[in-house]
Input
Amino acid sequence: MSASTTLAPEWLLPPADANALAESVWPASAQRDEHGVLSIAGVPVSQLQRDFGTPLYIVDEGEVRANARRTLAAFRAAAEPHGVQARVYYAGKAFLCAEVVRWVTEEGLAVDVCTGGELAVALAAGADPARLGFHGNNKSVDEIENAVGVGIGSIVIDSWAELDRLTGIVQRGTATQAVLVRVNSGVHAETHDFLATAHEDQKFGFTLDEAPGVVARIRATAGLDFVGLHCHIGSQIFGTSGFEESAARIVALHAQLSAGGEIPVLNLGGGFGIAYTSVDDPTPIESLASGIVDAVARECARHGIPMPNLAFEPGRAIVGRAGVTLYEVGTTKAVDVDGGAQRLYVSVDGGMSDNARPALYGADFSARIASRRSDDEPVLVRVVGKHCESGDIVVDAEYLPGDITPGDLLAVPATGAYCFSLASTYNYVPRPPVIAVRDGAARTIVRGITVRDLLSFDAGLDAAPAQPGSDQTNEGAG
Ligand SMILES: Cc1ncc(COP(=O)(O)O)c(C=O)c1O
Output
């Protein structure tokens, strides 16, 4: 019995061509040459392997910039007919390094950070502190003090304890700090299950009931300027209905609080979905933007209040499709499974350390042989990593040419968001470098972490001589 007929998930159908690059999943610049070798932004993967080794995070700079421009244009175009402005913050948690900060800020985006570390990256890259927003559910006194000290644009308050900390800090200084209040609207977008209650069982934000008390205290505190509410309903959301439902609840609260003074901003967070496989069909950002902004306008009209300026925080939608991870196939193994079917396991030289998303949330990805074209019949495969975990899965189910073999390069698209940023060095597997490609040229934008680097953190080795083999790996120095 073939694996294809029994083990494939319902949504995954055998492709007409297992070499095809689904347009919605790959960077727009991805193409194959006459030998079938994949290139991104004009740089062949064979060259990338030669110069930098594998595994490798490849980021298409042009794609990041284009997504940033398109997203900003979409929200501005949606806001303009209502006479308000839209600001787009890039959610740095998706993938943050100095170059990405420069690309997105050059394209007109502000940046949101959620730890002191992310703030340090953004500042070191030259971002204007006034165009940074600071998130996080457990900001330390040091982190808040530093953020206020550098003149951060806004701080999103997540708890009473944080409000106490911030109050203490601003009362020792002279500057006024703009703050938003993070509210949990009770709309639970992950499951598209719009909970009727605002008491969602999770750690972020204040309930709708608590928020007026928080805002009253901020308004009564010298040194704090309440500029608006913030709400983020989840990630990888495809439709507008969750955002619209959430907007209705938040605008109702915004209207209630407007009785106590003008509120200039409403921040509706990020979460706009992207395609990870060819069957994913996210709503184009233009339709999402107009759907959400028009919903806010309708609700404001219903409550008889002026519409505030709007802010959004996309992460994945900016960088997700710009990233491709390149691996080398190390082994293939046909495994007999229940029911007499066989599954072909394809092991690559990375795994859950460079892409934790399948193991963390069962995320689906797709893959293609990148070093050649093959006309062999597609077979169902599971792409796995080299870690000592059976859950170390990179692509749970994909059809690839049946002659896939050790030495082939395998490319996994749509890995630009939450892959590098969630990376670990589990099993002392080195962290791959990040290579930016643009106009036929490639350069390292984040160096890899080598085994030698890892050994250098081991204080028990301080007096020991260098270990043989400790310099193995691709540092991205090519
Ligand atoms: C507050 C906040 N804003 C924005 C984002 C970005 O989400 P996405 O990358 O799905 O757009 C997140 C993601 O966790 C978030 O928590």
The chain has a mean pLDDT of 93. The pocket of pyridoxal-5'-phosphate is lined by residues 91, 93-94, 135, 232, 235, 269-272, 313-317, 417 (CB under 6 Å). The first strand starts at residue 31 and ends at 32.
